[in-house]
């Protein structure tokens, strides 16, 4: 990774030593996906500098937009600053994205920060079945990329209220009839496994719209462990919820449920990670590398 500058936590932290971001334990508890531990040390040692750096890049974009407007002698709708977050299924993208949203809003209260995931652009389970793509869920062809790029084009055009479909991890499907709204945010955080993927047929890709991208990296065996732990937790939470995707498994033989999860990891998510997600790592502006317990041990920043 020749074009990246590598920092350990200690060094990275020193870039923001004077003003660590403030967050309460209660706020942190709300961010955690499913009862895990994100400690305040991470916020102090990793996220403070990250927030500060993101704000620097944000200001640069705004200054450039201003200059473009002056050069052209016209007012141009200022598109949001878009941050993309990529990485494997279960590596912790949504947890990091939620943390960034809270910390950015907290540190810069005038900024409106919206968070969303590309999960909503995956075809519904019914449509995946129709296309014979059930075993390819999460792979590039399982997303409605036209819908996603049209959506992003609307975002950049400065349109006021833009709707997008929603996905539920609990249902393991698109939620029909429910939509998210993007209403002129200053910063838009978009997380998803496909956010750095290259096009298969020369079309525009998601990352063409990003101002800054982050890849969350970790050893495969750890991500598998986090995937299995989340699976068991979601299953337990839905033991008494007959409408849930995990309900039957939660009330059936435990070893069969674990076998299903293991197969999903081995045959779907791990294959996707190796073939389509990990190869996009070096397209990111910043790589957060995690070790056991989700501890970020290395930070790689791409040289400009
Ligand atoms: N910093 C962290 N500390 C502790 N646990 C974490 C942390 N980040 C993520 N986790 C846990 O790891 C699991 C995966 O995290 P998360 O759901 O954020 O992943 P994801 O990459 O968004 O997954 P997907 O692509 O399936 O949506 C969850 O159980 C989550 O609670
Ligand atoms: C929605 C995706 C594809 C991406 O986040 C993922 O969370 C997913 O549901 N993958 C399919 C295999 C699985 O259930 O883990």
TrEMBL record:
Gene3D superfamilies: P-loop containing nucleotide triphosphate hydrolases (3.40.50.300)
The protein's Enzyme Commission number: 2.7.1.33
Pfam families tied to this protein: PRK
EC category name: transferase
GO molecular function, a single term: pantothenate kinase activity
InterPro entries recorded: P-loop_NTPase, PanK, PRK/URK
Domain of life of the native organism: Bacteria
Substrates-to-products reaction catalysed: (R)-pantothenate + ATP = (R)-4'-phosphopantothenate + ADP + H(+)
Keyword Cytoplasm: yes
Entry similarity comment: Belongs to the prokaryotic pantothenate kinase family.
Main location: cytoplasm
Protein name, entry field: Pantothenate kinase
GO CC terms in record: cytoplasm
Residues annotated as binding ATP: 87-94
This protein's record includes keyword Metal-binding: no
Subcellular location: Cytoplasm
GO biological process: coenzyme A biosynthetic process
Keywords carried by this UniProt record: ATP-binding, Coenzyme A biosynthesis, Cytoplasm, Kinase, Nucleotide-binding, Transferase
Natural source organism: Lactobacillus kimbladii
Pathway linked to the protein: Cofactor biosynthesis; coenzyme A biosynthesis; CoA from (R)-pantothenate: step 1/5
All copies of domain Phosphoribulokinase/uridine kinase, residue ranges: 82-230
């Amino acid at each position: 990774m020749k074009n990246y500058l590598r920092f350990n936590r200690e060094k990275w932290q020193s870039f923001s030593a004077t003003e660590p971001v403030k967050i309460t334990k209660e706020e942190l508890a709300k961010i955690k996906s499913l009862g895990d531990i994100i400690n305040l040390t991470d916020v102090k040692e990793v996220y403070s500098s990250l927030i500060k750096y993101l704000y620097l890049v944000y200001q640069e974009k705004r200054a450039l937009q201003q200059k473009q407007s002056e050069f052209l002698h016209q007012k141009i709708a200022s598109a949001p600053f878009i941050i993309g977050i990529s990485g494997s299924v279960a590596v912790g993208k949504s947890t990091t994205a939620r943390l960034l949203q809270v910390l950015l809003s907290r540190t810069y209260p005038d900024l409106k920060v919206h968070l969303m995931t590309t999960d909503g652009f995956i075809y519904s389970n019914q449509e995946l079945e129709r296309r014979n793509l059930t075993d390819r869920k999460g792979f590039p062809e399982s997303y409605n990329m036209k819908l996603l790029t049209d959506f992003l084009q609307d975002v950049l055009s400065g349109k006021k209220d833009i709707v997008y479909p929603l996905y539920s991890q609990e249902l393991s499907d698109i939620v029909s009839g429910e939509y998210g709204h993007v209403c002129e945010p200053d910063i838009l955080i978009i997380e998803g496994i496909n956010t750095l993927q290259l096009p298969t047929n020369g079309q525009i890709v998601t990352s063409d719209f990003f101002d800054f991208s982050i890849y969350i990296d970790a050893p495969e065996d750890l991500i598998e462990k986090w995937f299995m732990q989340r699976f068991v937790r979601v299953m337990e939470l839905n033991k008494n919820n007959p409408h849930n995707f995990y309900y039957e498994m939660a009330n059936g033989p435990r070893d069969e449920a674990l076998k299903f999860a293991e197969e999903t990891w081995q045959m779907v998510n791990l294959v996707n990670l190796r073939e389509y997600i990990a190869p996009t790592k070096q397209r990111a502006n910043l790589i957060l590398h995690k070790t056991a317990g989700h501890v970020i041990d290395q930070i790689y920043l791409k040289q400009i």
